[in-house]
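debug: dumping io for the single-chain case to check the tokenizer round-trip. Nothing else runs in this session.
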Amino acid sequence: MLFQLAYLGVTNDAHGGPRQNTPATIERIRQRFGQHLEVPDVTARWRARVRAQPEPGRGGRWFWTTIESQRLDHYLRDAKAVRNRLAHGDDSQNAPNDSRTLYDRKDGKTSITLMWVEGFVQAVQDLATITALELTGDTTLIPDWPVPPRTEVSANPPAPPWAATP
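debug: decoded output
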């Protein structure tokens, strides 16, 4: 939903889809919502739970963390870069990792993992929920998202970011 809204008003090119020159940035999404739905700053409270790459000395575990602001903007850009590379048959190992959430390999390249994908799905759910609340009011009832069985580190994500926002 968020990526679709980021493309509002962009004309289709020869391959039938949106042009790829529209970056998936928080600023662009904010502008599109403001322009098409007259919502001045739908992204002001955006925060998202993600899985971050293992840090040295932490046993190789992908811990949950909440990101916001510039790091969230970098995260969306990194995700779009991975998507573009995969969609066009390129190697995702050359994707940027400005958000420091993709896996940094020893050879200097990056990699996506199942843990990163799990975090991305959670981030999309968080941003969609915050956006829905911003558009419809904080009294909107948000259903629980389906969650697979989790163990150990995976079982303890941070609290939902929409509950923690003022």
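debug: round-trip ok. The first strand starts at residue 47 and ends at 51.
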